Amino acid sequence: MAGLRRRRAARLVPLRPQCNKQAQWPLTERFGCSVPDSSIDIPLAVDLDGTLTPSDTLHEGVLLYMKQPLREVSALWVPLREGKAQFKKTVAGTVLFDPALLPYNEDLLAWLRAERRRGRKLILVSAADQTIADAVAAHLGLFDAAYGSSDGINLSGVRKRDFIRATLGDRFAYAGDAPVDQPIFAAAESVVLVGKVARLERLLPAGKVVERRFPVDRAGLRTWAHALRVPHWAKNLLVFLAPVLGFIHADWVTAVQAVVLFIAFGMLASATYLINDLLDLGADRQHPRKRFRPLAAGLIPPRDGVLGAAGLLAGSAVLCLALPLAASGVLVLYLGVTLLYSLLLKRLPIVDTFVLAGLFTVRVLAGAMLLPTPISPWLLTFCMFFFLGLAMVKRHAELNRVVQAGGAGVSSRGYTAKDLPLLLAAGITSSFAAIVIFVVYLIEEQYPSGLYSRPEMLWALMPVVLLWSLRVWHLTVHGRMNEDPVIFALKDGMSRVLGILCAVIILMAWL
Fold it and tell me: Exposed, middle or buried, 493 (CB in 10 Å: 0-12/13-18/19+)?
């Protein structure tokens, strides 16, 4: 341990100039009663993962590693066999880590800055790889030294306690967040508790001095609903389209299966949203709106996000047992394409819009698999063109916001300002093509079907759908489309009126 200390002695983070000690008291008092001056003499060791940041740098590193070629990912088990420290070193040495993008516990940081101004010695001691600890310490500029796992030693639990004693002596304070820190809490003269404070207090020896408490609430239902994009479940109503249009061939079993399919699609879609957010943490944190997503903001740790996605995938798989094999196959297809989109296709301009349109159309296809009759190719073609136009709306709106803010393009998507006219032309063309296909669908499918007593009424749907599409594009080119166009339709008053009008037209055609 002494040898490890000597090897790290040169890795000190330069001190910032110290301010007048009296200037810090108003800031310190925000956190409760003033800290006794004697605490200045007790150096403070601060943990990183879960304490300084609510996230976990190893988990985020592994998620970044998953974007490597499959051969590289499959070889990751080799360093894992050599121990956790070597595994962390391999991950840290492969991915590009930017400490500026990490979410931090701002209340804790403010208190640490106040302690630093008082002249207290602060060191960062983390189980993360040494390069990660160095990068975070250099970015924050708070610590006299930074220590992490290296030389085959995973700096956690008892090893961390022994290292802190060897570095600071027997008198030290420690800021931590996890039960694995219990031996360090026991050895410390005083502690700073972060996270689930009540649980941590039960681990402390009787009489242990607690300098500060920084409780962090667990993510509630509202936070998880935001992460799971529950409002986006409305997109899965498309699974009812084919059963509703073909209700003459449906029965109560089909109706129940449609509801099960809707729930299965919702769980599957929410799981893929979590996976997408986990793989896009860095990009989302640089986005003006996506940085507030629960995973990007650190409100939900990456580990919980992975567990949540796994649970939703398992739940969707169980529901598939109640569905026809063909419908379950479409769900598997949706999952495969969505994962491929998150890993690769989303970075291919224009291709990404076709994938998005296809994922909407797949929902319609899944609903059609519940019926004994084959789905109309005209209906699928209409859906593909209609949703391709909406995908172009989404990309045009995102790119236009970036350009209006002075940016050159959306680098993570491969679009530049020059693509704005292309997206506009292709999107409007797709919207008009959808209307033409819809007319063909009426003539070829609905008129001779005998399903409607007055099929000529269905013609009134054409101007309504076209009006809505052009209105969406009008708002888009004027920079007023600030969200997903499908979610916009659910919130927009005029869109709801037009939707009700379409329902009335279909009812009048049927009666």
Answer: exposed
Parent domain of 392: 376-511
Residue 122 near residue 13 (C-beta atoms within 8 A): no
Q: pLDDT tens, 123-138? A: 999 999 999 999 999 9
How confident is the model over 164-193, as a mean pLDDT? 94
- At 242, give phi and psi (nearest 5°): -65, -45
Query: What CA–CA distance (Å, rounded) separates 243 from 152?
Result: 60
Task: Quote the distance between the C-alpha of residue 292 and its chain's center.
Answer: 10
Distance from C-alpha of 137 to C-alpha of 116, rounded to nearest angstrom: 13
Which stretch of DSSP H or E encloses residue 46? Answer: strand 44-46
Phi, psi of 76 (to 5 degrees): -70, -20
Q: Report pLDDT digits (tens) over 249-264.
A: 557 888 899 999 999 9
Note whether 46 and 183 are same-domain residues. yes
Q: Nearest 5°: phi and psi at 373?
A: -95, 150
Report the DSSP beta bridge partners of residue 209.
Answer: 190
* DSSP state, residue 482: -
> Mean of the pLDDT values across residues 145-152?
92
Average pLDDT over residues 337-358: 90
Percent of the chain having pLDDT more than 90?
Answer: 56
Distance CA 67, CA 73 (A): 8
Q: Does 210 lie in the same domain as 239?
A: no
What's the CATH number where 160 sits? 3.40.50.1000
Angle among Cα 481, 486, 491 to the nearest 5 degrees reads: 75
> Are the C-beta atoms of 243 and 367 separated by less than 8 Å?
yes
Q: From the CB of residue 3, how many other CB atoms can be counted at a distance below 10 Å?
A: 8
Q: Which of 52-56, 220-224, 342-346, 391-395 has the lowest mean pLDDT?
A: 342-346
| 174 lies in the same domain as 268 | no
Residue 7 is predicted with a pLDDT of 40
Angle value at C-alpha 82, between 81 and 86, nearest 5 degrees:
120
Q: What is the pTM of this model?
A: 0.80
Q: What is the pLDDT of residue 43?
A: 95
